[in-house]
Design a protein that fits this description.
Elements: H1 12-25, H2 39-52, H3 54-68, H4 98-103, H5 106-132
Length: 137
């Protein structure tokens, strides 16, 4: 399978840790610490995995494992809080900018999905590290 790339992929664990760090701290992509590798690599991999459904498959896998252990509470709570908007908030453009139109809302969906993945993903990484032993670090 050719992916039009030269060279090797950066370590997935390092990139995932960078994505988790970025989502949990809210830092800008360009401000990611060097230990996660080049910020462009982390950002592009996040966009690629969002577009090709990797995050969705990962979420389904983690949910299946967690549900099998009985650790998921599938009850849904709905908050009916109302927040008033400023009077100048009315009349904003109704259409999305062209960059967002082409992605069909993927950045927002991927952010919501990634945020919901943080705890189970961190647990999966901890388990993988425990299985790999101290040499894998």
């Amino acid at each position: 399978m050719s992916n039009n790339r030269c060279g090797r992929w950066r370590d997935h664990r390092q990139v995932i840790n960078g994505i988790i760090h970025r989502l949990s701290t809210g830092t800008q992509w360009r401000e990611l610490p060097e230990r996660f590798g080049p910020w462009k690599t982390v950002h592009k991999r996040h966009l690629l995995w969002s577009a090709d459904g990797t995050w969705n498959r990962l979420l389904q896998h983690v949910q299946a494992l967690t549900d099998a252990k009985g650790d998921i509470d599938w009850n849904i709570n709905i908050d009916s809080t109302v927040t008033r908007a400023h009077q100048h908030a009315a009349g904003a453009p109704k259409s999305q900018p062209p960059a967002l139109r082409s992605s069909k809302g993927a950045p927002q969906r991927s952010l919501q999905m990634a945020t919901s993945l943080l705890v189970p993903l961190a647990e999966a990484v901890r388990q993988a590290r425990a299985l790999a032993g101290p040499a894998a670090g």
